[in-house]
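=== Structure Prediction Worksheet ===
Name of assembly: unnamed complex
Input type: mixed (protein and possibly other molecules)
Chain count: two
Listed entries:
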Amino acid sequence: MPLDITLFGIQMPTLLPIFVISAVVQILLDRVMSDAGIYNHVWHPGLFRTAVFVCLFTIVCLLIYH
Amino acid sequence: MQAANVILTSIKTFPWQRTLSEWLSIDAPILIYMAKATIAALLALWIAMTLNMPDPRTAIFTVFIVMQPQSGLVFSKSYYRVLGTIAGVGISLLLMGMFAQDPMWFIAFFALWIGLTTAAGFKYRNFQFYGFVLAGYTLCIVALPVIETPLEVFDIAVSRFSEVIIGIMCATVVSDVLFPRRLLDSLISSEQERFLNILSTLSDPKSVFAVFDETNPAVTRFSSGVVGLNAVRINSSFESGSDQKERQHYEHLNHDYMNLSTTFHSLKSIIAAIKDRENSEVLCALERLYDPIASVLTTLPDTLLTPKDLENLIRELLEAKKTIQVELELEHKRLYVLTHSEEEDEYISAAYLITRLLNELHNHCATYLSLLKHRISGNASRQLSRVVQFSTHTDNVLVGLAALRGSGVLLLTMLFWILTGWPYATLTITMAVVIGLLLGTMPSPLDGVKDFFKGSVVAIIIAALYDFYLIPAYTSDLLTLGLLLSPTLAFIGWMTTKPKLAIFSFGFVFMFMSQCALDPYYKIEPTKFLESSLAALIGILFGGLAYLLVNFWSCSLTQQRVAKILRRQIVSLCKGALNVERSALESTGRDLVQQFSTQGRLNMRSSRLVFEWLLSTLEIGRAILTIRRTLQRIYLRYHTKSIDIALESIKDYFETPSLSQREQLLNTLKNTLQELRLTQMPSEKAQFKRLQTLIVELALIRTVLLNSQTFPVVTEDSCH
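=== Predicted Assembly ===
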């Protein structure tokens, strides 16, 4: 995967769309997990949520910079 | 908070446990919040400096704008801040691209945008308001600095946007990860308090049957908080671990409470009228009717209720319902002999309200029990399928006024800029626009401007200390800068926890962040510092001037406006669509009155009057809806012409109220009631019930109209 991509004629780092996409995925995942009651079994929901986002974002980032 | 609770229970053995637990519950959260705000701000500063952002102060400023003690508030504020910034950046690029060469058009569209955002900010509640403020403010900070060099606008737009995102990320992550305080927890505790308050108020027959007593806190509290708690519920939806079902329960509780409070106050006002006429027989009958409710509620423990207690309570309430039904029938037969219609009207409307109160109390308890069960085991006992909507109403005149003020102050400061040709006047414009946007929804904007001014002056002094002494003398790298800044950042954090200092701290943050030397490299000059401070202070003065000038909203004007809107509501209910929900009616009315009582400068007396008007409107409106719905389902032979005439004359009366029309309407209602009572009662049970409903609702309308002396014919000027 290239480090820069061009969207609508604007060149930007690939990290930016990845960030946006993983944020959307995170929001959907968050909704599913909270309705399923998973957060009731987690010690620190906020930390868990942040960690899930970091995982989502970094997995794709590592693929690019590999 | 959970950790704090564990500590709270484990220190019970200490000798000075009270002091410690008080410190833990009151002072410790403030200290934690100060630490969180400081850490988030320093993190934002560090990231922005490391990434070589041209203006790191925007990031740190954003942190303080969105930072709140509860995580839910931070999320929802951040969300709207991002939306507002996107809109602001977009419109700046558009304006600069189209009109950079043409000052006339540029200024015209600028003013239009500011007017639009001010108006929209006024129209929307909660932090949505904040998104619009930011949309207007962002245009100022992006477009104005590059007005001489329009080609740079894209760079500055991108960097401002990135800085805002950095600030928001830092604030949200820190507030959700470090000692998070959930909004939902505060929601459940205020819901608990409200529920206990309801039970204790209703358990005492005196609070229903005694004369209205403004000093009785239980009674006055019984109407507050509907709009506020709804806002909390909306904001909590951004938090982690808030599931949809729980929020739906809160929605329903709020709705139930709203109905309950309306019924309670209507009942009280009818009883007050009966008392005035010293009609002890009716009063005694009503007290007998209320007795079962009071006796069920007095047996309850004062402490927190367990689901088991609640189940018992609900069963007993059901029994009380049956008792009241029997009592009502007996009493009805006895009173029928009196056939003095005035008294009978009063009695059946009050009795109807008592049964409604009981039904609604039963509903409220059932929903509350379901919520408790859901929180404990995840099994809600109640299916909440119906969606209850909280509708709002904003008066278009108020919105128009706000838009006029926003555009006006922009044009005025633009004129100041063009006439003086002062390069720093762009700061004047920004500050004036901020004042116009931010303080517009405050109860007393002028006091707000004064506080803002004071905060800015203090900030200038402290910023000067930093710029010319502390930063050049003691900082060599990012670490020392952070150390030097942290006391001030913690101080700002402390100020934002004090509601009294809210506007002062806003002024402080705005000024400190724009004047403090937080650039990637040190570039402060005394003349520039003084000139820009002066420009900003002049901007605040301009903003204050706008509030002073565009401000003809007096108390009596507000009263007239409210009366007109409420009247129009009834008229539209008389002829409009039938699918209006009671919840929509109630929430709109409450929201409207809340807004007018903060905006319209009503005194105590007028606020009470306006609340009474609202109650009459809600009762009459609901009764009209019920009558119209019943008429659709009743046999044609009972649907007499006189009912249609009565509805028509209600509509006429509220369209053009006058004293003579009031007399006429009361007579029409009396005749209609007489006629209905004389008709042969149908033997079919459903039809019998519908006919009874018609009588009760018409009697209720008549009683409410008789009691309401000041509405819709505004006879008393309570503003002086």
